[in-house]
Specification:
By secondary structure, the protein is mainly α. Helices cover 84% and strands 0% of the residues.
Length: 173
């Protein structure tokens, strides 16, 4: 590889350079170009200033936004599952609308629920053995077994009664 990079090549690599995602050898070539090219150096410095300003303003916004209360976080899961009464449901809606951090928390919970549901469906579809059907079959079979078991016991009881009566008749006659 030629050790001299052109301005177009550096421009193509500028995002990776600023983010620190270049391999050391390529980073060295970019540094060599920046030592010789004031236009590219100025471009990188301006982009870094913009990025630093953006990061600072983002951090400032995070500090000024109120965090969701533990009570709200506790109610989010029942809210998602429609387990709250109407007044609690409205309270949660109002709190999530007015608080961006609470909205993000709610969105994360919805994403988590979606992931869990898709994982369940995937596992259910991939499973060759339907456990719910097997359990229902066993319960139905068990009721038939219980019914036939009951009739067998009743028949044995009737035979015992007949044997006892026959024994009394044989003894007394």
């Amino acid at each position: 590889m030629n050790k001299e990079l052109t301005c177009n090549q550096v421009s193509a690599l500028i995002n990776f350079y600023i983010e620190g995602k270049l391999n050391p050898r390529l980073r060295e070539y970019v540094n060599l170009h920046l030592e010789k090219c004031p236009a590219c150096r100025k471009k990188i410095e301006e982009l870094q200033k913009i990025l630093n300003t953006f990061k600072a303003s983002k951090e400032k916004c995070k500090e000024t936004q109120p965090k969701p209360s533990p009570e709200l976080i506790y109610r989010l899961s029942p809210y998602i599952d429609n387990e709250l009464n109407i007044s609690e449901n409205i309270k949660v809606k109002k709190l999530t609308i007015s608080n961006p951090a609470a909205r993000r928390e709610l969105e994360n919970m919805y994403k988590f629920k979606k992931i869990i549901q898709s994982a369940y469906e995937k596992t259910k579809n991939e499973s060759k053995f339907d456990y719910s059907k097997n359990v229902l079959t066993q319960v139905q079979d068990n009721s038939e077994y219980t019914t036939t078991y009951f009739y067998k016991l009743a028949a044995i009881f009737v035979l015992l009664i007949i044997a006892i009566i026959a024994g009394f008749i044989y003894l007394y006659f």
